[in-house]
């Protein structure tokens, strides 16, 4: 795999992009000492990242704005999740996008479980229609089985509009089938799970219900994706 970063000299946006790249590489288990070619080019307006010769473009340019003190302008750089998608494809891994309404419980859990248990063959991503902060019991329940949610953040599904996934899995219950409306490309699978965050017993047994969701997801998702490898 060939990784190349081209930017103007002393470009602070290039440094930000390199940080996003480094985070994505760690997520995929790529060694920290993996060679990255970096070259200066004063004619380049915004920093450019190439993976195996393919330009990594931001899917939502207006959300990737970074001010640069070297050229006194603002550059658009791709989000770390878009960079990770390109890296995963270059590594030959299959990709799956999990969707739920808030990207706070179900899709985050599914993403973490897939990356932890099936990361050799799959790279998982997640997004929501109405992104909300991660629900605290999720991190606790996943920590109990050895999964740490370092750097997890809420994401809107539009972040991935330029990405093609092998599988797109909607996780909303049957009452929320609007989650199948993602317009991106990829095979669709509807695998509904109840959301403990919206349970009428909210605040009572939250962690136990999240543990049940975790275990159900581990069983069903690993069986499904394991069978499509």
What does this 3D model show about the protein?
The protein has 229 residues and is an alpha/beta fold. It folds into two domains: 83 residues, no CATH class; 133 residues, Response regulator (Rossmann fold). 30% of the residues lie in helices and 22% in strands. The strands form three sheets. A four-stranded mixed β-sheet has the order 2-1-3-4. The longest helix is centred in the C-terminal third of the chain and has 21 residues. It is elongated and about 55 Å long. The two termini are 22 Å apart.
N-to-C SSE string, H for helix and E for strand: EHEEEEEHEHEHEEH
CATH 2nd-level architecture of the largest domain: 3-Layer(aba) Sandwich
Q: What structural class do the secondary elements suggest?
A: alpha/beta
Query: How many discrete domains?
Result: 2
Largest sheet: 4 strands, mixed
* Rounded mean pLDDT score: 85
The helix tally amounts to 5
pLDDT < 50 stretches = none
Question: How would you name the CATH homologous superfamily of the largest domain?
Answer: Response regulator
Overall shape: elongated
CATH structural fold name of the largest domain: Rossmann fold
CATH class of the largest domain: Alpha Beta
Instruction: Please state the CA-atom Rg, rounded to the nearest Å.
Output: 18 Å
Q: Going across the biggest sheet, name each strand in turn.
A: 2-1-3-4
What level of helicity do the residues show?
25-40%
Task: Give a quick set of tags describing it.
elongated, alpha/beta, 229 residues, 5 helices, 4-stranded mixed β-sheet, 30% helix, 10 strands, Rossmann fold, 22% strand
């Amino acid at each position: 795999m060939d990784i190349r970063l081209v930017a103007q000299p002393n470009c602070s946006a290039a440094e930000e992009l390199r940080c996003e790249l480094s985070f994505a590489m760690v997520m995929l288990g790529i060694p920290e000492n993996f060679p990255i070619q970096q070259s200066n080019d004063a004619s380049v307006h915004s920093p450019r990242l190439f993976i195996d010769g393919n330009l990594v473009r931001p899917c939502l340019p207006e959300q990737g704005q970074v001010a640069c003190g070297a050229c006194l302008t603002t550059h658009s750089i791709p989000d770390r999740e878009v960079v990770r998608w390109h890296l995963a494809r270059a590594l030959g891994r299959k990709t799956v996008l999990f969707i739920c309404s808030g990207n706070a419980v179900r899709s985050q859990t599914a993403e973490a479980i897939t990356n932890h248990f099936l990361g050799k063959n799959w790279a998982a991503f997640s997004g929501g229609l109405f992104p909300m902060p991660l629900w605290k019991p999720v991190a606790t329940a996943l920590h109990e089985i050895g999964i740490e949610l370092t750097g997890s953040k809420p994401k809107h599904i539009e972040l991935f509009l330029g990405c093609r996934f092998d599988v797109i899995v909607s996780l909303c219950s049957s009452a929320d089938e609007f989650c199948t409306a993602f317009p991106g490309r990829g095979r669709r699978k509807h695998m509904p799970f109840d959301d403990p965050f919206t349970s009428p017993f909210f605040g009572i047994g939250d962690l136990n219900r999240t543990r049940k969701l975790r275990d159900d997801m581990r069983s069903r998702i690993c069986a499904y994706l394991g069978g499509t490898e």
